[in-house]
């Protein structure tokens, strides 16, 4: 019986990451979930019979230790992320750097750890979770937009380097997702503006022609597709899930 493929999901304790871990487990993968919050990933790991490894994706030493513990990886999902909305003129440089460290440098460091094994085996998938804010600008979101736009640039550059080695690198760009990370953003926007939570949610939903937020399972399905055999020819691409927002 062939050995199950191994997927690592960063930011895997909740939201998109947890849904992605569950999706890959249902497909027969061996799953490792990584995050800074040990309690969240251990709870999920117990639920789906996965392996939990604590990591700070922005810390090279932490990433080194985590991937040494995880072992060879067939699919890497760089999902770890943070958001802290603020006007550009009121954004502390430390907050700016934290966005870049978690949302961009984290994907870089984790990818570095899996690429040698993937290229030597002649196969592998790296899937970066970005967002539509990486494709356009938005008030209060400059640090987040910059980090996610950088992640898309990194996706395209890395895909060009490793495509000949049987490794694909792609990104998923969901619109507004009903997730814990989005809830943090909504709360921050509510604190920094005069709009109510209901008004903010209605405005975000109204951005999409489908007039809705998207579920974490929808994003997980898109990620799983990019890891599937049918997506072997897809490389350096950005899969947008926004209900037609950018098109309209």
What name does the CATH topology carry? Answer: Rossmann fold
The proportion of residues in beta strands is 5-15%
CATH superfamily: NAD(P)-binding Rossmann-like Domain
Global outline: globular
What is Rg? 17 Å
Characterize the largest beta sheet: strand count, sense, and whether it forms a barrel: 7 strands, parallel
Whole-number average pLDDT? 93
Account of the protein in words:
The protein is α/β, with parallel strands linked by helices and 248 residues long. It has one domain (6-175, 215-233): Rossmann fold, CATH 3.40.50. Helix content is 48%, strand content 15%. The chain has 8 helices and 7 strands; from the N terminus they run E-H-E-H-E-H-E-H-E-H-E-H-H-H-E. It has helices at 15-26, 38-48, 60-70, 93-121, 142-162, 180-192, 197-206, 216-226; strands at 6-10, 30-35, 51-54, 75-78, 124-129, 167-174, 238-241. A 7-stranded parallel sheet has the order 3-2-1-4-5-6-7, sandwiched between helices. Strand 1, helix 1 (15-26) and strand 2 form a beta-alpha-beta unit. Helix 1 packs across helix 8 and helix 3 runs parallel beside helix 4 (93-121). The longest helix is centred in the middle third of the chain and has 29 residues, at 93-121. The protein is globular, with a radius of gyration of 17 Å. It starts with 5 loop residues before the first strand and ends in a 7-residue tail after the last strand.
Kindly summarize this structure in a few lines.
It contains eight helices and seven strands. With 248 residues, it is α/β, with parallel strands linked by helices.
């Amino acid at each position: 019986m062939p050995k199950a493929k191994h997927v690592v999901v960063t930011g895997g304790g909740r939201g998109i990451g947890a849904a992605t871990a569950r999706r890959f487990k249902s497909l027969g993968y061996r799953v490792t979930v990584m995050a800074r919050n040990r309690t969240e990933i251990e709870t999920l790991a117990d639920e789906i019979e996965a392996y939990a490894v604590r990591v700070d994706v922005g810390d090279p030493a932490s990433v080194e230790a985590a991937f040494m513990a995880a072992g060879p990886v067939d699919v890497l999902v760089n999902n770890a992320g943070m958001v802290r909305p603020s006007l550009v003129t009121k954004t502390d440089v430390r907050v700016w750097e934290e966005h870049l460290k978690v949302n961009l440098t984290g994907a870089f460091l984790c990818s570095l750890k899996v690429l040698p094994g993937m290229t030597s085996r002649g196969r592998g998938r790296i899937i970066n979770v970005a967002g539509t804010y990486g494709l356009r600008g938005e008030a209060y979101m400059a640090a987040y937009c910059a980090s996610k736009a950088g992640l898309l640039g990194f996706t395209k550059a890395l895909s060009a380097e490793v495509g000949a080695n049987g490794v694909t690198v792609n990104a998923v760009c969901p619109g507004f997702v009903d997730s814990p990370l989005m809830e943090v953003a909504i709360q921050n926007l509510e604190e920094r503006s005069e709009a109510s939570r209901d008004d903010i949610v209605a405005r975000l939903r109204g951005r999409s022609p489908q007039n809705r937020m998207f579920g974490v399972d929808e994003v997980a399905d898109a990620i799983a597709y990019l890891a599937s055999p049918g997506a072997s020819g897809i490389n350096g691409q950005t899969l947008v899930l926004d209900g037609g927002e950018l098109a309209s």
